[in-house]
């Protein structure tokens, strides 16, 4: 059976290290599906839920909330380097929901001020990350 090694690395260390037969990731250019034997690539990642189908069982899927970064595919070794990443089992959904509410408030305040585009962008990213964590944590 063809397989790949998948590692997700953050500043806190390795967050994921398993063998897989399929990966779905969200890049800046859209979603990309990766199978063993995929051409070597490097791509920028979006804040997105990553789907990893493990080799041990067709129904075994790991979901990981990845907050941007890069993906490198080279000779059936997939490395994701991200600022942060969390597996579905590690996400506290109620905490993520509180972060979403906080980000929505901050976004509304920043849009009303209308003079600080950076503040609006930071609030948008925080909201996007919170929604991503909720989606993955609710799988």
Automatic annotation (TrEMBL):
CDD domains tied to this protein: F1-ATPase_delta
Residue ranges of every copy of the ATP synthase F1 complex delta/epsilon subunit N-terminal domain listed in the record: 4-85
Membrane topology summary: Peripheral membrane protein
Subcellular location field: Cell membrane; Endomembrane system
Domain ATP synthase epsilon subunit C-terminal: 90-136
Highest taxon above the source species: Bacteria
UniProt cross-references to Pfam families, sorted A to Z: ATP-synt_DE, ATP-synt_DE_N
Residues forming coiled coils: 91-123
Keywords, comma-separated and alphabetical: ATP synthesis, Cell membrane, CF(1), Coiled coil, Hydrogen ion transport, Ion transport, Membrane, Transport
Assembly behavior: F-type ATPases have 2 components, CF(1) - the catalytic core - and CF(0) - the membrane proton channel. CF(1) has five subunits: alpha(3), beta(3), gamma(1), delta(1), epsilon(1). CF(0) has three main subunits: a, b and c.
Family, per entry: Belongs to the ATPase epsilon chain family.
Name by which UniProt lists this protein: ATP synthase epsilon chain
Organism: Streptococcus loxodontisalivarius
UniProt gene name: atpC
């Amino acid at each position: 059976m063809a397989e790949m090694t998948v590692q997700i690395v953050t500043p806190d260390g390795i967050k994921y290290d398993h063998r897989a037969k399929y990966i779905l990731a969200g890049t800046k250019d859209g979603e990309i599906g990766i199978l063993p034997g995929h051409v070597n690539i490097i791509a920028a990642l979006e804040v997105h839920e990553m789907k990893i189908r493990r080799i041990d069982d067709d129904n075994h899927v790991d979901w990981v909330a990845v907050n941007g970064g890069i993906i490198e595919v080279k000779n059936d070794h997939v490395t994701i380097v991200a600022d942060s990443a969390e597996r579905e089992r590690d996400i506290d959904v109620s905490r993520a929901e509180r972060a979403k509410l906080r980000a929505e408030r901050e976004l509304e305040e920043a849009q009303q001020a209308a003079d600080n585009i950076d503040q609006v962008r930071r609030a948008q990213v925080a909201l996007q990350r919170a929604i991503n964590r909720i989606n993955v944590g609710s799988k």
